[in-house]
Amino acid sequence: MRRLIFLFIAFFTLSSADVVEYPLLIQKDDTQAKIKAMYIYNFTKCFEWTNNKDGNFTITILGENTGLVNELSNMAKTKMVGSQKIEIKNNTGISDVEKANILFITPDKSNLLADVLSKFKGKGVLVITEKQGLAKIGATINFIVKENKQSFELNKTAASKAGLNVGASIEKLAASVYN
Amino acid sequence: MGQALKNWQPAFIIKMKGLKNIALFCLLLMATGKSFAQFSKVEKAMSLYSDKKLDSALIIINQAIKSSETSKDYQAWMMRGFIYKELYKVNGVKNVASPDRDSASVSLIQSLELDPKNENPQRSNTVQSLKYLASTYHNDINKSLDTIGYTQALINADKHKAIMKLIDPAFNESKYNYDVFSTIGSMFEKWYELKTSRSLLELAKTYLLKAYAINNNTDFINKNLGVLYYNQAVDIIKKMDYDVSLDQLPIYQDNSVKLGKQALPYLLKASQINPSDKSVVEGLAGIYYLLNETEKYNEYKKRFEDMNK
Q1: pTM here?
Q2: Count of CB atoms within 10 A of residue A146's CB?
Q3: What's the average model confidence in pLDDT over A25-37?
Q4: Alpha carbons B243 and B204: distance in angstroms, whole number
Q5: What does R_g of chain B's alpha carbons equal in angstroms?
Q6: Looking at beta carbons, which residues of chain A come within 8 Å of B254?
């Protein structure tokens, strides 16, 4: 992401003191995207993928979230999942999604959750959402905000239906766990 | 030296040309009851000064002020101040810590203090010279404003204040301190953003908070403090390595959120003082985004976008 530089006029007059205004740099980094990307990278270590072990480890964003796509792409440059390279894809429709290890559905595409679950049932795809209540209706992970911080809910049954084995550590760290 | 003297001459020097005027000056000295020898030294220094022989004039005047008879003579100290001032103009204008300027200031201040009844006919020239010296201290603050020279900037600010308090009853020391501290604080803030050094951050905070303690009702100080805390909050997230474990993530977020909450009241106040400042509105959008307060974020984002239409 970029930084924005605000330039102010510097003046310090001879006869009277006035404040010299130095350029004020306001950070413009997408903090939410960075945290989500870090959670997602951690999830690659917390689940056991029984399928899709060939080729690249694919993380697909279904919907629009440029910040997250950029952040995950940065992460993919240096990180791997086991021996698999990470590949980031961004799709707008479910029909475009062919293969994924992780599928993140943006809030504006939440209505596609049922179709996603049906299409990828038992195929070892970790479905992550970001809208209140979606963990209860089938998303394995749902990002939530708790006390101004990003956190997540876990649905163990959904994980099982998806064909994923859940690691013990993630359960302890989830804000809510649904069975 | 000649050029420097051409640039400035106190009014009484212009008027007192030649022996006639020196004699008049001598009469003035005699009227104050000085012995001939000491009077002669001040007169001699005056004459050398008029002839632009500043180094010789300085030797003589320094002898005069060490003498018990003229050590408390405001005219001797005034003369010493003028000589040092000219030496400063010839040799020291590029030196932000010029000892000649300090000696000139000390001497002229001493001259004023030795003349509590305002009897010195050249008092206004003394004051004018002090004003000039004060302005040079002030201008040199700007020249020393970097991460190393800032201590000299503070020293020069103190010297400027010492003079101004004496010669200008309207001088607002508190406002001056606010300006100096907020300038130095914002300078360190800028350098912290460029170099992300902990010590620069601490210095930025120290001086911005000093300014804030003097006046917390300016958009400048509130904006700078708000942005300082906000940028720190963002830095925590930005610098996190992707290998930070799942159990550590909330700790980093806690620290970032804490700083974001510290930033918020400052930027809200800056916005209240100056609602048209786009950078403040954008900063507020950034804080609410960091704090995951979507409604507020959207509100300020829209406000910022509207400002840019």
Answers
A1: 0.81
A2: 14
A3: 88
A4: 31
A5: 28
A6: 149
Q: Do A148 and B261 touch (CB under 8 A)?
A: yes
What six digits make up the tokens of A138? Answer: 């089938």
Using the beta-carbon criterion (under 8 Å), do A38 and B135 form an inter-chain contact? no
Using 50, 70 and 90 to split pLDDT, how confident is the model at A7? very low
pLDDT band (50, 70, 90) for residue B111? very high
Domains delineated in chain A: 30-178 (3.40.50)
Please tell me which residue of chain A has the smallest CA distance to B251.
A149
Q: Could you give the angle at the alpha carbon of A98 between the alpha carbons of A92 and A104, nearest 5°? A: 50
ipTM for the whole complex: 0.85
> Which residue type sits at A86?
I
Domain ranges (residues) in chain B = 227-309
* Fold observed for domain B227-309: 1.25.40
- B163: which 2 tokens? 């003079």
**Could you tell me if B92 lies within 8 Å of chain A, comparing CB atoms?**
no
Strand segments, DSSP code E, in A27-178 are 47-49, 57-62, 80-81, 84-91, 102-105, 126-129, 141-146, 149-155, 164-166, 176-178
Contact A51, A81 (CB under 8 A): no
